[in-house]
From TrEMBL:
Keywords: Acyltransferase, Cell membrane, Membrane, Signal, Transferase, Transmembrane, Transmembrane helix
Region annotated Disordered, chain positions: 158-180
Pathway annotation: Carotenoid biosynthesis; staphyloxanthin biosynthesis; staphyloxanthin from farnesyl diphosphate: step 5/5
Protein name (Swiss-Prot/TrEMBL): Glycosyl-4,4'-diaponeurosporenoate acyltransferase
Main localization of the protein described in the UniProt heading: membrane
Cited InterPro entries: CrtO
Length: 180
């Protein structure tokens, strides 16, 4: 552990988080889209998520509107607060960008361990708690939206291949068709 005065520790802590958030976000924004086009083992829906039902129980639809959308921080970012289209191509892009945002928030958590270098053990744990509290809700929102949009996209494709047939909705979770 590096020993610093309380003042320097406070200044470094206050400056470190915005630098971490902005630099990691900028890095992820510029990652090649190919990393986010397909569902890999991490992005795939898990059984415990109960087709998104777990997020319904958490009330994500109610509280996700009050959190900020960082998609507009940098030029070229993808805002997800409001839909800008309803085409299958737009939904595919939206789904891809939920993966990018989820990845961004996921990799913002491990840097919290760096705070143990110049902070006391207690403050180090507070920084880890901060990283979890600030990033996990956004990870949850991205998963919630992605699974909904994947179902919507599947229904759109089914309607295109079987005209005249109405796609069956399985739950109240399926009935929501816009992110906010």
């Amino acid at each position: 552990m590096v020993t610093l005065s309380t003042g320097w520790t406070l200044i470094i802590n206050i400056l470190a988080w915005p630098i971490i958030h902005l630099s990691f976000s900028y890095f992820c924004l510029h990652l090649n889209n190919r990393y986010f086009t397909e569902d890999n083992w991490y992005y795939r829906q898990k059984d415990w998520e109960k087709s998104g039902g777990i997020y319904e129980k958490l009330g994500v639809n109610k509280w996700k509107t009050i959190v900020p959308d960082g998609g507009g921080v940098f030029k070229g970012g993808f805002r997800k607060k409001r839909l800008l289209g309803r085409s299958g191509e737009y939904f595919q892009m939206f789904i891809q960008e939920t993966r990018r945002a989820e990845f961004t928030h996921l990799i913002l958590i491990p840097p919290s361990l760096l705070f143990f270098i110049w902070n006391t053990l207690e403050v180090g744990f507070i920084m880890v708690a901060y990283a979890l509290i600030v990033n996990i809700p956004f990870i949850i929102i991205q998963r919630y939206n992605r699974f909904r949009f994947q179902r919507i996209l599947t229904r759109k494709q089914q309607k295109r291949t079987a005209p005249g047939k109405k796609a069956k909705m399985n739950s109240s979770f399926d009935k929501k068709t816009v992110p906010y």
